[in-house]
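Most newcomers find our protein records easier to grasp once they have seen one. Read left to right, the backbone structure tokens trace the chain's path through space. Nothing more is needed to start thinking about how sequence determines fold. An example says more than a description, so a record of this kind follows:
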Amino acid sequence: MSFLPTLLLALVLALGSDASQAQQPQLNLPRVKLLAGMHQIDAQVASTPEQRATGLMWRRDMPMHEGMLFVFDQPSVQCFWMMNTPSPLTAAFIADDGTIVNLANMKPLSTQSHCSTRPVRFVLEMNQGWFEKKGLRAGARLTGEPFSR
């Protein structure tokens, strides 16, 4: 049975290469421009289950005006965590009309869950402190194509 070690080695190598590919940040998702008052946001759009599951994992940094907009098919209580995400982020849970329902500051590499306080279809992740620096809190309204449907 000398083929067994070879088979095991091939399996380990295959799994290792898949894991290393999976640990790459998503940088080429579609983008959308959003406005928060006079502040423009360049947001990557994560709209498939795979894109949402990866989110901003493995991103070491992100320009201050950029973020990621997670789009779900139906309103639901959305919960996020920061596994494999090394940068501190703030999640804005957003209603269909663009109104921020609640904000959650999230610690890097944490599995602590942060949830919307009511069902939403949108979650916007930005660098931690961005919303605070812009004076944006629950009740503020974002505008842009996703919120005009």
